Amino acid sequence: MMTVQLDKSKHDRHRFDCGIDALNNYLKLMACQQAKKDNTRTFVLEDESCTEHIIGYYTLTMSPIDLATLPARLQKKHHNVSSGGLIARLAVDQRYKNKGYGEWLLIDALRKLLMASETVAFPLIIVDAKDGAELFYQKYGFTAFQDAHSKLFITIADVRASIGPLV
Questions:
Q1: In 27-82, at which residue ranges do the beta strands (DSSP E only) sit?
Q2: Cβ atoms within 10 Å of 134's Cβ, excluding its own
Q3: Which keywords annotate this record (predicted)?
Q4: Residue 155: beta bridge partners?
Q5: Quick check: helix, strand or coil at residue 94?
Q6: How far apart are CA 167 and CA 127, in angstroms?
Q7: Among residues 29, 85, 96, 102, which is most buried (max CB within 10 A)?
Q8: CA 51 → CA 11, 12, 31, 146, 147, distances in Å?
Q9: Pairwise CA distance, residues 81 & 66, whole Å
Q10: CA 121 to CA 162: how far, in whole Å?
Q11: In which element (H, E) is residue 162 found?
């Protein structure tokens, strides 16, 4: 399996339905516009039997970090940090749910952000867990920010330790 960047001329965005209107509409209406403006990058996992069909997707960008919302140990260690990598959206089409694709997409997103951090250093990956997805991310080591329970983070060091060296 491999993700590719969303291509509106190839991928059937209108067929995608994860059950959450905001995530469906972002993919259908905004993802390509945001990529064209260099604001985000959206990656899709294609169905190998029909590559126009999107199994799932995630969107990556950068996000400002409010140091005051981090645990004290991280505030001290990263006192000059202003931004981190952001998994802005992650969704799986309802037809493909409960088959491990969400986990696979998350690990792929973490790997891409880890690779980016090797070139442009940033210490944290942030996720805005939509519609009660906090438990999904916490299962993979994400911790809630002090001021917002649906906004979570994981350190690049923890991702590196979990994923191992990049090849």
A1: 41-47, 50-64
A2: 17
A3: Acyltransferase, Repressor, Toxin-antitoxin system, Transferase
A4: 124
A5: helix
A6: 25
A7: 85
A8: 7, 9, 18, 41, 41
A9: 9
A10: 18
A11: helix 156-163
Question: Yes or no: is domain 3-163 CATH 3.40.50.720?
Answer: no
* Cα Rg of the chain, angstroms: 16
Amino acid at 151: K
Q: Copy the structure tokens of residue 19.
A: 């059950």
Residue 101's identity, in one-letter code, is: Y
- What pLDDT tens digit does each residue of the chain (167 aa) get? 899 999 999 999 999 999 999 999 999 999 999 999 999 999 999 999 999 999 999 999 999 887 777 767 776 666 677 789 999 999 999 999 999 999 999 999 999 999 999 999 899 999 989 778 999 999 999 998 887 778 899 999 999 999 877 76
Cα distance between residue 157 and residue 46, in whole Å: 30
Give the HSE-up count for residue 106: Cα atoms under 13 Å, Cβ half-sphere: 20
Q: Which helix (H) or strand (E) holds 22?
A: helix 21-25
Which amino acid makes up residue 59? T
Rounded to 5 degrees, what angle do the CA atoms 57, 58, 64 make? 165
